[in-house]
Amino acid sequence: MATRALLYRRPAEPATLMVKHGSQFFAIRLRRHRRARRYTLRIHPTDREAILTMPPRGNLVEAREFAQLHGGWIAARLGRLPKAAPFQAGTLVPLRGVPHRLVHRAGERGTVWTETRDSGERILCVAGGAEHMDRRVHDFLKREARKDVHKASLAYAEALGVKVKRVSLRDQSSRWGSCTSAGSLSFSWRLILAPPYVLDYLAAHEVAHLVEMNHSARFWKVVARICNHVERAKSWLDTHGNDLHRYGIQD
């Protein structure tokens, strides 16, 4: 937890509180934010939990009342999360938008690679012990994401005459990418699960911020000038983006 956040947490304040809705109990994660003006709730799609943000002067009694009041909303949102798809043998995982079935190859050497069966089915083969399967698939997907994002970002930076200082990957739940004025770009590794034009658009979007650090009409003109599939990618993310958060997690 950041040092700044510790300043607002009471010494004996719990990290979570329990809320009951009908016959269900939900653990709500608490966090204080120095700029929060009111209590807010959001659902973390990867951690599959509700997060209640409290203002600096908020208290546990009010927080519990707020969470309890919105128990139905919490239950409905958690219930609508897509079914988890852990990285284990048999799971279908999209790689650049193409479904690949995970296959464990315990007796073979190597890490992770792709194959196509005679039937035409695409598979993602994972060598080694079954206990390492989750980590190896995660590592493989992040490597592929880094390669694609880095290539696209540099290409768009050259087209706009700007310089990218650094490209990093995270598992962000609230945004697919970000950009700093210093030229550091950050992307969700989960973009490697989407069709290539989606990752490509996000790279164009973040690089365009090095020209316009806003979302003004001028910014969108920059994006449209270098990327011809903006609306198609935005539409895909609006429809399927939340589904990407279910891969590599357990229910």
TrEMBL record:
Pfam families the record matches: YgjP-like (PF01863)
Database matches in CDD domains: M48_yhfN_like
Transmembrane segments: none
Residue intervals of the YgjP-like metallopeptidase domain: 39-240
Origin superkingdom: Bacteria
Full protein name: YgjP-like metallopeptidase domain-containing protein
Origin species: Bradyrhizobium ottawaense
